[in-house]
Design brief:
Elements: H1 3-16, H2 18-23, E1 39-40, E2 47-48, E3 56-60, H3 61-67, E4 82-85, E5 94-97, E6 100-101, E7 113-117, E8 120-122, E9 135-142, E10 156-162, E11 170-178, E12 182-192, E13 197-208, E14 212-215, E15 221-225, E16 228-239, E17 245-258, E18 264-267, E19 271-273, E20 279-281, H4 286-293, E21 306-307, E22 316-331, E23 335-353, E24 362-364, E25 369-385, E26 390-406, E27 409-411, H5 415-425, H6 450-456, H7 464-476, E28 483-484, E29 489-506, E30 511-529, H8 536-541, H9 551-556, H10 568-581, E31 595-615, E32 618-629, E33 632-633, E34 664-665, E35 668-680, E36 684-696, E37 698-703, E38 708-716, E39 731-733, E40 735-746, E41 752-765, E42 769-770, E43 797-805, E44 808-809, E45 814-825, E46 828-829, E47 839-840, E48 843-853, E49 859-866, E50 874-879, E51 907-911, E52 916-924
Parallel strand pairs: 7-10, 14-21
Antiparallel strand pairs: 1-2, 3-9, 4-5, 5-6, 7-8, 9-10, 11-12, 11-52, 12-13, 13-16, 14-15, 16-17, 17-22, 18-51, 19-20, 22-23, 23-24, 23-25, 24-27, 25-26, 26-29, 27-28, 29-30, 30-31, 31-32, 32-35, 33-34, 35-36, 36-40, 37-38, 38-39, 38-42, 40-41, 41-43, 43-45, 44-45, 45-48, 46-47, 48-49, 49-52, ...
Amino acid sequence: MKGKSFWLISAGMVALGNIPAAWAQDSGAAVEPDNATIIVTATRRASPLSDVPIAVSAVTAQAMQNSGATDIRSLNQLAPSLLLSSTGTEANASARIRGIGTVGDNPGLESSVAVFIDGVYRSRTGAGLNELGEIERVEVLRGPQGTLFGRNASAGLINIISKAPEFKLAGKAEITYGNYDYWRLAGRITGPVSDQLALSLDGVWSKRDGFYDLIDTTGKKVGDTNDRDRYFLRGQALFEPNDALSIRLIGDYTHRDESCCGAAYIETRERLPLAGGGYRTAPSNRIVTILSRQGSVFAADPYDRDLTITPGRDYVSKLKDWGVSGEINYDLGGAKLTSITAYRDYKSQDYGDYDYSGADLLYRDPNTYRQFRTFTQELRAQGSAFNGVLDWLVGGYYAHEKLTLEDNIRFGADYGRFAACRLMAGADAQPSALLALAPNCASPLGLAGLGQALVNGGLPAPLVPILTGNLTRLASIGSAGTVGDVDSRYFQKSENWALFTHNIVHLTSRLDLTLGLRYTHETKRFSADLNNDNSICPLLQARTPGATNDLYEIATTINPATGQPLFGRAAALAGGILTLGCLGNGSTGLSALNLNDKMSDGQFSGTAVLSWKPVDELMVYGSYSKGYKAGGYNLDRFQLGSTGLNPVPAVFAPRSDADVTSLRFAAEKVDAFEVGLKYAQPKWSANIAVFRQEFKDFQLNTFNGTSFVVQNINGCDSALTTARTCASGDVGPGLISQGVELELSATPVRNVRFAGGFTYARAKFANRLVGSGNGAVPLDPALFLLPGSINSQAPEVVTTVSASWTPSLGSNGLSALFYVDGRMSSDFNTGSDLFPEKRQDGYAVFNARVGIRGPQQRWAVEFWGQNIFNQDYTQVAFSSPLQSSSPDQSSIGQFGRPGNVMANQLISAYLGDPRTYGITLRGSF
């Protein structure tokens, strides 16, 4: 939905604000209790939302319920500056605020958008994709955070506050049924044990069929995926022995046993550039041809949601997430002490088909898992001084986290034959005739006659036996059983401590100065115990003394006169054999490594805010913040030894213990500037913020079709050298997000509410980029489209709207509910390498709910729908693993670059949810 259509829908939704007023002529409608001013604790002080001089959105429990939200992903509909998505596993979901966030499925990266639940930091954003149970509200803080919350966040923060136990017996329950055989049961009971102790228990169970059908080569359904089967329990105790002391204990447990996450092909064409621009489509894609011979099926329309994967490689997603926390608040009279102590254990197992096709190329075995064991302690003291002139807060934070990742990626039975056929098909404008030598890609016997064909094709005759012999070895991988990782584990131990202060000086009764400062020290220790049984790789990497007589020499020998590979096509073929035969450094040589490393860092961050209230209803403010997010390790053996400066690809030779430092990435830093205005009347409110955020060492994680590449993105003020680097003194911000945000809410008449949000955020990379903070590492070749472009997952324009009408029905206490919300987004690219094939057109998603409710809402019957117009859209698109002829022949974005003659990378995508609908019955006492 582009251009004019998008703006027409936006205008139509603005006009929707006039509808509720017409609905609301019934003067007998009862006023809902959530009409009250929203109180937030974003500054660790309970304040009306309109009095907080930072950009924060507060979403109430009622708003979440109306929208049908059961996890934080549904906040997309209600917070325009926020975008949440999930990819190959919900364990590592991505959150972006103002176009900035951390993407990918690499657990070594912390999120730029932190998630806190009841004051406890959650290690990764995926924790928020669990059921939330009964909540009080959700606060979305935009911009860098650190002087108020325990953990640093460079882009923003999602603060979830659950509902505390009550000293009055109460309970509620609901049952939901929807399409895809969706069932959800939820309940809560709370009440006093004594005058000083109250308890509560929340529980949720949900189950649903998958959004995708799994089909075999005949089109017959053999299963489904992306289903739901989970439950959640949370117990709480609130102990208040006197007015000064409060102790709140929370324990929760989440269990998931699901099939997730499938991906559909959205681009399968092979395209050839035209002289005048544009492209034409080849009759077939040689990669599709090979995969089809190995059992893959390619749907005509990805939104038919029919997938074909390798039998026996079903997607599995299992999760056990539990934790306990205790919050103590003690009022000393002149100061208040707060202590939050927590321990969490998060273990996720996500495995299955890794190539997303019917060919058995790559898979993760069932022993794969990631586990975070985290202990955190936060201690704060706050109070006032100088007769109320100063509101002060000081605090400390400590976190100890053990991350264990067992990531067993193995070559399937079809891998070797696929790799050999891919190389035989070539990477020229037309498929090589050599592909016909193995018409079924089913046996190394298909290589018969290859040697003479290579000679006829112009390859030097003395090199042909080396190439054919090693190509035969490559083709044999998987033919006698799958090979790859066996109990390969990565360990990262993180220890973090910080001291912070956040103080408000009341310069006058209407003018405040807020000053915050934080020092953070982070130490991370990395080790790995890698085990791999790919015995073919060492044979391919073996060096043979004498003249040019091994793959390494054929691939790397340079003609001194031209600076180009001496053996031309033979060099490309030799390099391809090494790359695919030792994919991701997969070799028995890994088993001998003893990888260990340590990194420490200390950083100051802080904020300064000047706010002024010329009248009670209006506040204006200006702020500066300096943010920080810790560095870490890329937990991916595929990048071991790849420094960005390698004269020869690292995979061409065995790896050593010294390569461990290549897995490091540096801390992310941001300087943020903001001016804002907040205006609040009893009937309506408006918030406006104008912002600019400058990121240095931005941690970018991208999947290049083979491995996850992590680089620290920076800009250069001067022209790049021929090596695509610049002097350290010329390094500046690599990514700048700037724009404006508008939030409106109104209650023009009783029982009518509507709200809207508008965000214009331009998160743009600098025109000249490098891959390190000192300018010495060039930008990774996979990221060539980044300079001067808008960041991925960063629509420039987003509009959200919601409207509700709850009129009384007669005089017996009954009421109705009419609710609708919508999110309209402009175009954006969903892939972090910004390939044009991964671009998502602008689209709109709407939810709706209608129902009837009993007196005081003691019961309710509601009919609901989400994505009611069944809008098709992509969450994240990615390069299908290994499914292109060459990294240089992948995308139409490469047309015009030296050496590019075509583009045939297959693109897969994690699609947005289809339309769902159902009925909910709710009761309470």
